[in-house]
Design brief:
Number of domains: 3
Strand content: 35-45%
Distance between the termini: 152 Å
Structural class: alpha+beta
Number of helices: 15
């Protein structure tokens, strides 16, 4: 066997680099940072798990002093827990338990503590809290007492921190389900004149709890009016959190009843609710008195509606019901922009009874329905009165603003056919406007703009009422005017201003103009000659059964200048084919008296014309016609004497009308001008319509416009 010799071993070169060692590595900075990060996160997670474990095992009882200290410092109130305290995380959500917990009130409050509870427990949603949302999956509260107060400086007991800061509105935490027993809540708001004391939970059952049901009962006063209420929150008995919660409440104040039921998004969340409201009582005014809103008196009413709260607004939709004999439908929103109540509503009615409208201008509704307008107002001064004297409710009007639209399809009225009523009512800081207020009447249209300025101590009302040409056959059908044979129309305008907080006072101090115009047309009634005050011709044709020909009206004006509540004829002039009718006198809004004398001068020879004034006397409530005037009796006596002395033929001479009346120029008449502008057909000034100066002497001396646009 041949053994090969080993090659010679060479000594290493001293200058050569040593070979890399297999056990040594170069360090990567990125890997090193990542490793540190993992270590930190692992440590944090470990600490969290450790803290969670400690809290879960100990239930966080050792945190009670820390909780009291931090809560007291954050709220600037004294927060104490007299008994057991627990705060720990049950997986993610936090559980909180406290026995004998109290939170003190600010020093100005009437009670020492804002909140007290024998036992309170809650499961709080942790993640929503991180985003500023207060949300609890469930709440258990026993023996709780809550004192929620406002004061005159607009501070409240639930705004924590500086006790003198302006109070913020209360925001309920969102609670999915609640189990509340033996709990009392007191709420006081001097600005709303509201005080309530509510007992929440199963009071009678003591410690026995009713699963999923939170009943409540309460009493209180609102604007000095007492009320009682009871109801319940009926939470769903399921494991689904934050399910919709059924709610019901019943309230009563004297004869006014309110029922509310429906669903809430959560037990303490009103926003987005879906509720059904029903109210009924003898007078809508009593209901709105709770809001401090001035509403008109009504007869018995009932209404239903849907109710929800959205964006700070209380929205009443699908309103349906009746007041008196009238129906009402629509929607209404109540909001509080700039801390001032604002009512925005849109109503409509298919049929409204005139009795139900009377209270809108001050008539007592029940008396108006039972006995008429005279019984519905206060009688003063020993004379019959029918103008309403109910004052504006200034204390309520100043409390709110409003925008109301109201439409009525048909209007039940025994005298005038009225339909398509359209009213826009606005109230802006005690300035009320009814503009437009319009309706169709007997084939014509009445439009008006009325402004009531209650911003000044003495309420000022401006009236501007316009009647478009309206067929007299329809307008006066309820007063015996026959439609067949009557082709004449009537148009009018009333423009006045008065002072006073009642309709009676406003009219009694008013100044302005009233103009009623009769354009060319015919007018027929069974008492046709009475309309022309030709007594002799009326008797003659009545005997001969010839009352079949209508009056031919050329033009007519019933004009009145009103000064300090007294309306003087300025002028009354009606030109017909046979007569020229004029009148003197007028009427007074002050005592509602009538004192006018009408006379007719014939254009043609009339054998049996009375030729004497016919008086309209009395009062608005009790008017009277004095056809047999003293002048007529005198002429009758003269005729009787002539008959005895001479012959029967001479007896009729006293009633002869020579027919010298001058026809009227219709231009000034149709323009509604004053007496000074009246002319005969030949253009000469009329001397039979009185003088404006005479009217001023009767009712003041303020200058009035010569005419108003008709």
């Amino acid at each position: 066997m041949v053994v090969e010799p080993h090659p010679p071993i060479e000594a290493p070169d001293a200058d050569a680099a040593p070979p890399a060692s297999a056990g040594r590595h170069r360090h990567d900075p990125a890997n090193w940072t990542l490793a540190i990060g993992f270590a930190v996160v692992a440590t944090i997670i470990g600490l969290i798990v450790l803290a969670w474990t400690i809290l879960f095992v100990t239930k966080g009882r050792f945190l009670k002093p820390t909780f009291e200290s931090i809560a007291s410092r954050m709220t600037e109130r004294q927060v104490k827990v007299a008994g057991d305290f627990q705060f720990y995380f049950d997986i993610i959500d936090a559980r909180f338990v406290a026995d004998g917990m109290t939170i003190s009130n600010p020093t100005w409050a009437s009670k020492p503590n804002f909140f007290e509870a024998k036992h309170i427990a809650a499961r709080i949603k942790t993640i929503p809290v991180l985003f500023g949302e207060r949300r609890a999956e469930w709440l258990v509260l026993d023996g709780g007492k809550v004192d929620a107060e406002w004061d005159a400086k607009k501070r409240n007991t639930w705004t924590f921190g500086d006790p003198n800061q302006k109070g913020e509105p209360f925001q309920w935490p969102t609670i999915g389900r609640a189990d509340v027993t033996n709990t009392e809540v007191r709420y006081i708001d001097p600005q709303l004149f509201l005080r309530t004391d509510i007992k929440v939970g199963d009071i009678a059952a003591g410690d026995t709890r009713i699963d999923g049901k939170v009943p409540f009962t309460g009493t209180g006063t609102l604007r000095s009016k007492p009320f009682t209420m009871y109801g319940a929150l009926l939470s769903p008995n399921s494991t689904v959190t934050f399910g919709r919660t059924r709610f019901e409440m019943h309230a009563r104040s004297g004869p006014t009843y309110l029922d509310l039921n429906g669903t809430l998004p959560a037990a303490t969340q009103i926003e987005g609710s879906d509720l059904n409201l029903k109210v009924h009582g003898p007078n809508v005014r009593l209901l709105f008195d709770f809001l401090g809103v001035a509403a008109p008196d009504t007869r018995n009413y009932w209404f239903t509606s849907k109710l929800t709260k959205a964006g700070g607004e209380w929205r009443f939709t699908r309103i349906n019901g009746r007041y008196g004999a009238s129906d009402l439908h629509g929607k209404m929103t109540i909001s509080f922009p700039k801390d001032r109540l604002f009512l925005d509503a849109m109503f409509d009615s298919n049929l409204v009874d005139i009795i139900d409208v009377g209270p809108f201008i001050g008539y007592a509704p029940q008396a108006l329905a039972a006995q008429g307008p005279q019984a519905a107002v206060a009688q003063t001064g020993g004379t019959p009165r029918i103008l309403p004297d109910a004052p504006l409710r200034m204390e309520s009007i100043r409390n709110f603003d409003a925008h109301i639209l109201y439409k009525v399809k048909d209007f039940r009225n025994p005298k005038f056919p009225i339909s398509n009523v359209d009213l826009t009512f606005d109230l802006d800081k005690s300035l009320m406007t009814l503009s437009p207020l319009s309706f169709d009447i007997a084939g014509g249209k009445l439009a008006s703009d009325i402004t009531i300025n209650a911003r000044v101590p003495a309420v000022i009302t401006d009236y501007d009422i316009r009647l478009s040409p309206t067929p007299m056959s329809k307008l006066l059908a309820g007063f015996g005017v026959a439609q067949a044979g009557t082709t004449g129309t009537i148009k009018a305008r009333i423009k006045m201003q008065g002072t006073g907080d009642t309709l009676r006072d406003s009219l009694a101090t008013s100044n302005g103009r009233i103009a009623i115009i009769l354009p060319k047309g015919t007018f027929w009634t069974q008492y046709v000659q009475l309309a022309e005050f030709d007594i002799g011709l009326f008797v003659q044709k009545l005997i001969q059964d010839k009352l079949k020909k209508p009056i031919e009206i050329n033009c007519g004006l019933l004009g009145f200048t009103v000064r300090d509540g007294v309306a003087a004829a300025d002028p009354i002039l009606i030109d017909t084919d046979k007569n020229v009718m004029t009148a003197t006198g007028g009427f007074s809004f002050k005592d509602e008296s009538l004192d006018m004398n009408f006379r007719a001068d014939g254009k043609k020879f009339s054998l049996f014309s009375g030729q004497s004034p016919v008086g309209i006397k009395g009062y608005f409530a009790q008017p009277g016609i004095n056809i047999i005037s003293p002048q007529l009796l005198t002429r009758g006596g003269v005729g009787l004497g002539l008959g005895l002395v001479a012959s029967p033929l001479a007896a009729v001479l006293a009633f002869v009308d020579v027919g010298d009346a001058k026809a009227a120029a219709c231009g000034p008449v149709l323009a509604g001008a004053q007496a000074s502008a009246m002319r005969t057909k030949s253009g000469k000034p009329r001397k039979d319509v009185g003088k404006v100066g005479d009217n001023r002497q009767q009712a003041g001396d303020r200058k009035q416009p010569d005419k108003i646009g008709i």
